[in-house]
């Protein structure tokens, strides 16, 4: 089976952003009622304007316009914090929203220039408000109302910051898990032939070295089959390259199914296949190669309603102690060439 990378889904707004937007909208609507009841008409209208901003921000989220959402929310927080603090006084706690702007600018804005601009403006605004804003309310109301607003603003700012922090921790963990999966997929792709789904040369050389070490240390033998499709050039020339690719896929499936458990079949190159038979001496490898050859001869390969005869010539070699894996592969190749010269569609064991 051919291995493919998982396609990335379309980017959408994270759920926490929608929750934060709805929460901001509800808070400002509550403030509209709160200030209207207390008779603070200016603050009631200010919060009504902020509610409109959050309603617009929700629409931007639904359209997946994250940059527009981030800019609108950051602008609203910055302007609201400055105006509300200047009007209601420092002790009302509206200046806490500037800290949220600083945090959110780096957490949500994708443009570094924009995020730095919001952070700079927020810091300047904080210093100016700290220096020049009145400490108490400009319109009276007494200490209880001021203290209530202070606690509400502090709790809301800390709450949203905590939620965003938790979300980004979860997001990083998910991103790391997805990255690890992508790395594993890429590793598989780097070791897999895209046409047949079999492993490629990179994979087989690692396994051959492992098999050689086991043979050298534990005496566990292994053998190699090198199979080649007979008359493949004529198939390509007569029926086209699509037919040739289909023939390669057909033989790959046949070899993979006929090979016993523990065997590793790879596409060696072009129309050639290499099979590693771990724990198999030469005679058993030859018997398996003959079964593969017979199955290829009997099997019906069809392409576009045509039945095309396909046969395999297979060279077989067994690893010898002290032998390099390249030498073992070379012996299988020599046996394959001998089989081709002898008439094809046969199994030849190396001497």
UniProtKB/TrEMBL annotation:
<feature type="transmembrane region" description="Helical">
    <location>
        <begin position="94"/>
        <end position="110"/>
    </location>
</feature>
<protein>
    <submittedName>
        <fullName>GGDEF domain-containing protein</fullName>
    </submittedName>
</protein>
<feature type="transmembrane region" description="Helical">
    <location>
        <begin position="148"/>
        <end position="168"/>
    </location>
</feature>
<dbReference type="InterPro" id="IPR000160">
    <property type="entry name" value="GGDEF_dom"/>
</dbReference>
<keyword id="KW-0472">Membrane</keyword>
<dbReference type="Pfam" id="PF00990">
    <property type="entry name" value="GGDEF"/>
</dbReference>
<feature type="transmembrane region" description="Helical">
    <location>
        <begin position="117"/>
        <end position="133"/>
    </location>
</feature>
<keyword id="KW-0812">Transmembrane</keyword>
<dbReference type="InterPro" id="IPR050469">
    <property type="entry name" value="Diguanylate_Cyclase"/>
</dbReference>
<feature type="domain" description="GGDEF">
    <location>
        <begin position="220"/>
        <end position="351"/>
    </location>
</feature>
<feature type="transmembrane region" description="Helical">
    <location>
        <begin position="68"/>
        <end position="88"/>
    </location>
</feature>
<keyword id="KW-1133">Transmembrane helix</keyword>
<dbReference type="InterPro" id="IPR029787">
    <property type="entry name" value="Nucleotide_cyclase"/>
</dbReference>
<dbReference type="InterPro" id="IPR043128">
    <property type="entry name" value="Rev_trsase/Diguanyl_cyclase"/>
</dbReference>
């Amino acid at each position: 089976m051919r291995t493919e990378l998982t396609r990335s889904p379309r980017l959408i707004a994270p759920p926490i952003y929608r929750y934060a937007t709805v929460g901001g909208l509800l808070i400002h609507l509550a403030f509209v009622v709160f200030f209207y009841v207390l008779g603070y008409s200016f603050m009631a209208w200010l919060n009504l304007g902020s509610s409109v901003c959050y309603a617009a921000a929700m629409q931007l989220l639904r359209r997946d316009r994250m940059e527009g959402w981030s800019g609108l929310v950051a602008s609203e927080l910055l302007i609201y914090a400055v105006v509300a603090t200047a009007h209601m006084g420092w002790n009302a706690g509206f200046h806490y929203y500037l800290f949220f702007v600083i945090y959110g600018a780096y957490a949500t804005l994708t443009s570094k220039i924009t995020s730095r601009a919001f952070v700079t403006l927020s810091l300047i605004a904080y210093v100016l408000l700290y220096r020049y804003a009145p400490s108490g309310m400009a319109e009276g109301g007494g200490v209880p109302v001021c203290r209530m607003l202070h606690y509400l603003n502090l709790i809301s700012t800390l709450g949203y910051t905590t939620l965003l922090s938790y979300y980004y921790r979860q997001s990083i963990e998910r991103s790391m898990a997805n990255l690890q999966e992508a790395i594993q997929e890429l590793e598989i792709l780097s070791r897999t032939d895209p046409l047949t789904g079999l492993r490629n040369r990179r994979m087989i050389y690692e396994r051959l070295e492992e098999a050689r070490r086991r043979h050298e240390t534990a005496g566990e033998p292994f053998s190699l089959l090198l199979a080649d499709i007979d008359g493949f050039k004529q198939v390509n020339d007569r029926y086209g390259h699509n037919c040739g690719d289909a023939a390669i896929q057909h033989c790959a499936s046949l070899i993979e199914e006929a090979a016993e458990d523990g065997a590793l079949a790879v596409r060696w190159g072009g129309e050639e296949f290499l099979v590693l038979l771990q724990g198999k001496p030469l005679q058993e490898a030859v018997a398996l190669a003959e079964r593969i050859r017979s199955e290829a001869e009997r099997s019906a390969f069809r392409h576009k309603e045509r039945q095309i005869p396909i046969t395999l010539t297979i060279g077989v070699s067994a690893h010898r102690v002290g032998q390099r894996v390249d030498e073992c592969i070379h012996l299988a190749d020599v046996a394959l060439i001998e089989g081709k010269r002898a008439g094809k569609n046969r199994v030849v064991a190396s001497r």
